[in-house]
Amino acid sequence: MAAPTIGIVGCGAIGKAILRAADDGTLGGMEVAGVASRTEGSAREFLGTLRTPPPYMSTGELIEQADLLVEAAGAPIVPGLVEAAFTAGKGAMVISVGALIAHPELLDRARETGCRLLMPSGAIIGLDGIKSASVGRIDRVVMESRKGPAALDGAPHVVRNGIDLWAMEEEEVIFEGSAREACIGFPANLNVSAAVSFAGIGPDQTTVKMIATPGLQRNCHDIEVEGEFGLMRLHLENIPGENPKTGRLTAMSIIRTLQQEADPVRLGT
């Protein structure tokens, strides 16, 4: 069975990482049908640096040409892109997983149409364990994230509450609430909490804390899950990539997920 062709929507840090992987053969049998971006000039400039650049297309052309649409452009485009992909009988990979909390109907549409909806683990670990635990009873899921000012700068929750990240001299909890609220307040920072909530007990029962930590150079996440299986504690320190809001593991996770699409052998839950 031939591997599906992919269309990449967005040419920021994540889109570029996928394109570099395709260009050096890291994606295995996956072929990039094309790229679309809201910043056409910079996207074409980057494509010109690749040995074998895929064509630049409009989003509509990309949906026609690709089997799997990869969203790498942020939460606002997710509803329209996924709906258009499903209408055309194509699959979609959503990087901005938090958008699916606000639009759960897209999960229903995937099941109705039979179109694939992929959500990579991204910048988090342990989803296989949480998914396994969800077969039984989970009593609580608590996630604490620590990030430096550069990673949190401009987040809606920070702006709305007038939080001066650069004036902090010690770490401070700047948010505590549900995963649903976390994804509204930190749409570029806490997609990980959406992934954790989907794997476990849902966005309204998953508790999230965001802790601003002056001088912190890594994006750190601690997750504690307790249920009938026992107790699970996970700790991750993620080195930021080109975009300080996004850890390097995010791109690695996406690339690995795409590799799996071309590989009949699967490991993990």
Provide the fold topology:
Blueprint: E1 5-9, H1 13-23, E2 31-36, H2 40-47, H3 59-65, E3 68-71, H4 78-87, E4 91-94, H5 99-102, H6 105-113, E5 117-118, H7 127-133, E6 138-147, H8 149-152, H9 156-160, E7 172-178, H10 179-185, H11 191-199, E8 206-212, E9 219-227, E10 230-238, H12 248-261
Parallel strand pairs: 1-2, 1-3, 3-4, 4-5, 6-8
Antiparallel strand pairs: 6-9, 7-8, 9-10
Helix fraction by DSSP (H/I, runs of at least 4): 25-40%
Based on Cα principal axes, name the global outline: globular
Secondary-structure content class: alpha/beta
End-to-end distance, in Å? 23 Å
- Give me the Rg, rounded: 19 Å
> Could you give the order of strands across the largest sheet?
2-1-3-4-5
Low-pLDDT regions: none
Q: If helices are DSSP runs of H or I spanning 4 or more residues, what is the number of helices?
A: 12
Strand fraction:
15-25%
Average of pLDDT = 94
Order of helices and strands: EHEHHEHEHHEHEHHEHHEEEH
Sheet with the most strands, sense and barrel status: 5 strands, parallel
DSSP strand count: 10
Provide structural commentary:
The chain has 269 residues and is of the alpha/beta class. The chain has helices spanning 13-23, 40-47, 59-65, 78-87, 99-102, 105-113, 127-133, 149-152, 156-160, 179-185, 191-199, 248-261, and strands spanning 5-9, 31-36, 68-71, 91-94, 117-118, 138-147, 172-178, 206-212, 219-227, 230-238. Helix 4 links the parallel strand 3 and strand 4 (91-94). The longest helix has 14 residues, at 248-261. 45% of the residues are buried. The model has no long low-confidence stretch (mean pLDDT 94).
